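Lab notebook page, bench 4
Experiment: in silico fold of construct C2
Operator: M.H.
Input chain length: 192 residues
Purpose: comparison with the prior construct
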Amino acid sequence: MQLSKLRALVAAGTVLAGVAMATPSFAQDKPTDNLKAPVIAVVDVQKIMQEANASKGVSKSFESLRETYQKEIASLEDKLRKSEEELRKQQTVLAPDALANKRRDFEKQVGEVQKTVQSRKRALENALNEAMAVVHKSMVEIVADVARERGANLVLARQQFVLVDTQLDVTDVVLERVNKKLPQVALTVPKQ
């Protein structure tokens, strides 16, 4: 789910980058007859962000770490269930003060597990966002290079259009270069 949000942001950022690259200066002292005709290139940002080798590696690492975290969390939750069950059994034999203390301790354990879960989730999402940002940055640089090589002064995201002449589409060239320049990106999650 987080990955799809990131992809949508990446697509929007690329459109803005393309517009920024192609936006002429609007100084008042320049005559309008010097404006160049647009030379357009189109790139499928979503395809590149999904199919780049580095993106696939990041996704695989993300899923692997997520599964590891889920197993750890399941183990912690199992311990909590056992503690809760034991607390229920002790209700009839413990004094009210002792029971209240044990309940507070249990609630403290629940709070710590919840903090651990949130911390791990946040760390994993941040690591994913940082790794995908590296892929995105590389893609944008390559898109700029390809645009210069082809003389394009306007690069648009493929997702914005229903029909596009294949000669304008530079997606495959960009994808190939991204794979060559950035074969993999490490998903780095800080130790907790």
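Observations: The longest strand covers residues 40-43. The two ends are 24 Å apart (CA to CA).
Next step: discuss at group meeting.
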